Each structure stands twice: as structure tokens, then as C-alpha cells.
């Protein structure tokens, strides 16, 4: 979509897709209705996603709020009340002003991160993920990338109790990992606690198929096997540098040559396992471990006694987050609505509902029987969902070769739909400026100040 915007109508765009368009945006059907099984919620400040939805004429649904509890494996350490002022009093009693301070802390990070939209609107691009991050938040952002969210929040004066009981459960739900993830992705996760979250009616994956259709790109079903630089002589002119892309299709191995190649899937043996042939210097392998998260959709009744509620009538939670306890076999569970649902007439969690469970491993029958007193249907999706975060983070390069670009390195900063859109626009701008030799639009420092004076 962004390449078409920059390069215009005359270029030919091919999308090589080994599975289905949308990647980690995916729905699962359960009893005739579709539910998000991958990337599920979008933040109100995700401007690219907002623009896509508007541009494509898609409808949005607000993410429904439900009462939340935080469970530590033995008891609930925090229970939200249906009365918001009681919840606030509970928060103040247990955590002091930590919660309010967290909102301000996250907002400050988001404010700086939002600068990317102005830079991209003014056609500025960055040649590395570190430079992009530094241009937004300076050394503060670099520090966040190089320390854990635990360290970052302790330094900012948050209590260990608050970090363990409030911050950690949110991160476990979002990224399947604890407070050892980097500070930046931790802040992105905490931004999801804010109100106003939304999703696309019919499934977030509709954005991907819609953008491909809108960009008039040709989708070729195939798995890329290798990329190799080629030089073609041109009569009466300089030789042309191209990339030979070889891919596997249902009818066998085939390939084509391209001027510019953008890799938009995580590189790695278990993901996009691409061989880079005859590059000089060779393209290095960079460690890129991804974390397994299992999504299990269950239509059934929660076994409230598992969570210490002997009386099911007293159990009102629609979302349960968990602290970091090795005995726990789930990260979170919550009631979900179908992707086509407008959010009205929603069933109470007590009645038989569809629950989404996140766990590190596929749940056994015994574990399902512990969690649910009865269930009708179960659907499971295993994901290599997001990077295994372990600061200090080293981001893979964006530029792998002259006109060979890699998008997913920015996921090591934070993995989210909007981050992928930002990486995509940056790569499209970078490819365009490098193709046309516009070096003034790449890696400009102090853009924030420059653009201020322009206004």
C-alpha cells in the first residue's frame, strides 16, 4: 500500500504469501461465529490503523469492558468492582498513586512515539530501527530498549508490589512473558490498559486483504526459498542490478527478478526461512527467537471453584489475568465476542460463553477440565506470536542490501499491528528515497525541532 503510494501506478507489485494474507491476524470459527485468534485490539492512538479502516470503508467495534480479576495461583490479589469508585479506592488502598502515575508515565512515552506520524507525513525515513527510535525519544528510548520493564519502572519509582500484581499480569496477557521484557514493549503493553480500544468488524485481517486490493498488488501463493543478487547487462547503458527471488508453489519451484525486495515476515528457521545466496558481504544471520503463545477458544462454563469461588453466582469476572507463578498453566482468560458482533446483547460470563485462553503450551484435557466445569467446543491455534524479549535488545537491520529491506526488526522494539504499519511506511519511504537518491530525507536528527520551526 505504501509502496504504491510512493512509487505510483506504473510499478508492478507482487506479494509472495506462503499461507493466508494477514499472517498473525487470523480468526477461528467456533459454532458458526468467527473470533480473533491473533492480534485482537487496536489502540485509539494507532493512527495508521485508523487511517486504513477509514480508507477501506471498514466498520469498527469497541472492545467491551468486563470486570477483571488478577489471580496469583491461590487467590485473587485484585478484584475490580462494578462500582468504579470502589475499584479506585481499592487501587489507592493497595497501590497508592502507582496506577495514576503509570498512566502519566505511559502517556509520556506514547506522546514521544507519536512523533513518528509527523516525520512520516513529511516524508522522512530512517535507515535503522535504532535511529528511528532515537529520533522519537532520544537516549530515554534507547535506555528503555536496553533495560527490563521491571528495572525501568523501579527506577521511575513504582513499587515492586504494583509491578508484580498489575504490570506483570498485563504483560503476560499481551506478550506471554513477564517483567523481564524490554521497557519499551512493556510500555506498549500497558498502553492497552487505557480505554477506547477497538477492533475491525469482520476481523482485523480485513485491513490486510483490503490494503492489498487497494494497492492493486498481485498476490502469488508461494513460499520464498532464496534471494540472490543478479547483474544484467543492458545494451548501451549501465548494467541493471536485480534480485532473483525463488519460491515454491503448488506446481513446484519457480521465480522472478525484482528491482526492490521487501521482506515482511520474521526471518528465522521456523518462520521465513530464506537463504541469501551470493551476497557480498554475506547477509549475517541474526538471532531472532520468537515466543510461542497458544490461543484456545472454549465455548463453555468456567469452573469458578478453580479460582476459589465455590459459589458460581458470586463470580462476575469477564477477564482474568495472572501473576508470574510457575504453577499456573495459563497466562490469561477472558470472554470474547465474535468479530461481527456490535457488542450489544452480550452474554454474562456466568452463562455459557466463549472464552479465549492464552497459555505457553497447548492445554491438556485435564487442564481444560480444571478450568471449565463444562464445555461444548474447543479451537486451538499455536503461534510464534512475538519476539522472545530479552534486553538489551539488538534490532536486526532494515537495509539488508542495496535495495533489499527487512520490516520485522522493529518488532524487537515492540510487536503490534501499528508498529508493523510504521515499519512498512518507513521501509517504503526509505526504498523510495534510496532509489531516487534523496539522502536529505533519510536519518535527519532533531526532526522534532526542525518541524516545529517549519510550522
TrEMBL record:
Record-level GO cellular component terms: lysosome
Record key words, sorted: FAD, Flavoprotein, Glycoprotein, Lysosome, Oxidoreductase, Signal
Residue intervals passing through the bilayer: none
EC number annotated for this UniProt entry: 1.8.3.5
Organism domain of life: Eukaryota
Pfam families for this protein: Prenylcys_lyase
InterPro entries given in the database record: FAD/NAD-bd_sf (IPR036188), Prenylcys_lyase (IPR010795), Prenylcysteine_Oxase1 (IPR017046)
Gene Ontology BP annotations: prenylated protein catabolic process; prenylcysteine catabolic process
GO molecular function: prenylcysteine oxidase activity
SUPFAM superfamilies: FAD/NAD(P)-binding domain
Cofactor(s) required for function per UniProt: FAD
Catalytic activity, reaction form: an S-polyprenyl-L-cysteine + O2 + H2O = a polyprenal + L-cysteine + H2O2; S-(2E,6E)-farnesyl-L-cysteine + O2 + H2O = (2E,6E)-farnesal + L-cysteine + H2O2; [(2E,6E,10E)-geranylgeranyl]-L-cysteine + O2 + H2O = (2E,6E,10E)-geranylgeranial + L-cysteine + H2O2
Subcellular location: Lysosome
The Prenylcysteine lyase domain, residue ranges: 78-444
Chief subcellular location: other
Family from the record: Belongs to the prenylcysteine oxidase family.
PANTHER family xref list: FARNESYLCYSTEINE LYASE, PRENYLCYSTEINE OXIDASE 1
Chain's role: Prenylcysteine oxidase that cleaves the thioether bond of prenyl-L-cysteines, such as farnesylcysteine and geranylgeranylcysteine. Only active against free prenylcysteines and not prenylcysteine residues within prenylated proteins or peptides. Involved in the final step in the degradation of prenylated proteins, by degrading prenylcysteines after the protein has been degraded.
Annotated protein name in UniProt: Prenylcysteine oxidase 1
Name of the encoding gene: Pcyox1
Amino acid at each position: 500500500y505504501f509502496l504504491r503510494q510512493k512509487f505510483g501506478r506504473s510499478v508492478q507489485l507482487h506479494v509472495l504469501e506462503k499461507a493466508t494474507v494477514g499472517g498473525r491476524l487470523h480468526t477461528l470459527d467456533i459454532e458458526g461465529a468467527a473470533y480473533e485468534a491473533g492480534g485482537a485490539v487496536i489502540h485509539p492512538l494507532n493512527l495508521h490503523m485508523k487511517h486504513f479502516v477509514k480508507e477501506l470503508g471498514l466498520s469498527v467495534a469497541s472492545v467491551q469492558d468486563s470486570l477483571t480479576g488478577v489471580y496469583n495461583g491461590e487467590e485473587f490479589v485484585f478484584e475490580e468492582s462494578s462500582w468504579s469508585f470502589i475499584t479506585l479506592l481499592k487501587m489507592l488502598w493497595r497501590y497508592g498513586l502507582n496506577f495514576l502515575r503509570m498512566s502519566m508515565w505511559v502517556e509520556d512515552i506514547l506522546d514521544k512515539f507519536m512523533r513518528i506520524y509527523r516525520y512520516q507525513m513529511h516524508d522522512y525515513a530512517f535507515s535503522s530501527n535504532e535511529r528511528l527510535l532515537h529520533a522519537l525519544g532520544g537516549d530515554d528510548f534507547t535506555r528503555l530498549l536496553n533495560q527490563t520493564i521491571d528495572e525501568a519502572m523501579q527506577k521511575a519509582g513504582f513499587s515492586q508490589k504494583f509491578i508484580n500484581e498489575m504490570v506483570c499480569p498485563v504483560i503476560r496477557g499481551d506478550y506471554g512473558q513477564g517483567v523481564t521484557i524490554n521497557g519499551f514493549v512493556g510500555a506498549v503493553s500497558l498502553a492497552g490498559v487505557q480505554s477506547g480500544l477497538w477492533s475491525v468488524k469482520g476481523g482485523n485481517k480485513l485491513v490486510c486483504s483490503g490494503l492489498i486490493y487497494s494497492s492493486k498488488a498481485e498476490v502469488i501463493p508461494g513460499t520464498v526459498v532464496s534471494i540472490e543478487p543478479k547483474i544484467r547487462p543492458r545494451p548501451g547503458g549501465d548494467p541493471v542490478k536485480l534480485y532473483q527471488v525463488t519460491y515454491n508453489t503448488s506446481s513446484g519451484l519457480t521465480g522472478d527478478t525484482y528491482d526492490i525486495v521487501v521482506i515482511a515476515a520474521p526471518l528465522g528457521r521456523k518462520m521465513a526461512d530464506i537463504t541469501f545466496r551470493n551476497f557480498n558481504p554475506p547477509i549475517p544471520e541474526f538471532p531472532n527467537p520468537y515466543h510461542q503463545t497458544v490461543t484456545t477458544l472454549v465455548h463453555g462454563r468456567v469452573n469458578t471453584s478453580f479460582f476459589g469461588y465455590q459459589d458460581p453466582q458470586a463470580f462476575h469476572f469477564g477477564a482474568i489475568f495472572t501473576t508470574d507463578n510457575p504453577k499456573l498453566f495459563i497466562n490469561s482468560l477472558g470472554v470474547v465476542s465474535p468479530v461481527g458482533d456490535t457488542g450489544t446483547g452480550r452474554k454474562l460470563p456466568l452463562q455459557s460463553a466463549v472464552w479465549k485462553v492464552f497459555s505457553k503450551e497447548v492445554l491438556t484435557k485435564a487442564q481444560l477440565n480444571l478450568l471449565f466445569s463444562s464445555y461444548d467446543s474447543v479451537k486451538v491455534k499455536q503461534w510464534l506470536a512475538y519476539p522472545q524479549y530479552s534486553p538489551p535488545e539488538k534490532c536486526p537491520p532494515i537495509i539488508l542490501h542495496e535495495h533489499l529491506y527487512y520490516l520485522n526488526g522493529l518488532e524487537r522494539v515492540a510487536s503490534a499491528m501499528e508498529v508493523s504499519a510504521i515499519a512498512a511506511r518507513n521501509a517504503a519511504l526509505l526504498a523510495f528515497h534510496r532509489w531516487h537518491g534523496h539522502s536529505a530525507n533519510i536519518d535527519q536528527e532533531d526532526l522534532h525541532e526542525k518541524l516545529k520551526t517549519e510550522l
